[in-house]
Design a protein that fits this description.
CATH architecture: Roll
Distance between the termini: 65 Å
Helix content: 25-40%
Structural class: alpha+beta
CATH topology: Nuclear Transport Factor 2, Chain: A
Largest sheet: 7 strands, mixed
Low-confidence stretches: 1-23
Number of domains: 1
Length: 155
Amino acid sequence: MNVTRACLITAVLLSTASLAAGQIPAEESAAETKITATLHQMYEAEKRRDLKFVLAHLADDFAEVAGDGKVYHRSDIEAGWADVSLKSYELSDCLFKVMTPDAAYLSCAMKVDATYKGQPFPQRFRVTTVWTQRQGEWLIRFEQGTIAEEKSPAK
């Protein structure tokens, strides 16, 4: 085996070993940081009633399968904006994955204090968002919100 081939094989093995050891490539880490920050900014915008900011981060063909099982689109978000009031939110237990250079998903457990048409909103969800990058900006293209069971007190 010549020296060049041995060096190439060693480089491939080392890069594979670092991925297997749990190291995230820099591009994936940067995407996760940007997407997570954008999602938090969107929830903060919702709290302050800034629809323009939220819509600026939804793809034109955005779709959401909500906890009620219905599919909502960007126009539905606009139409129902006045009916939803988000007071607080908390994200935890997040999973992130870059699927292609321009597509990623983020899935988090979410606890909210919110109302819909004045009625209490379910408090716990598992929310998964699929993001696509267009002209350097990450936008939510799809969202799935699954209502999670309330945690019962320990006995």
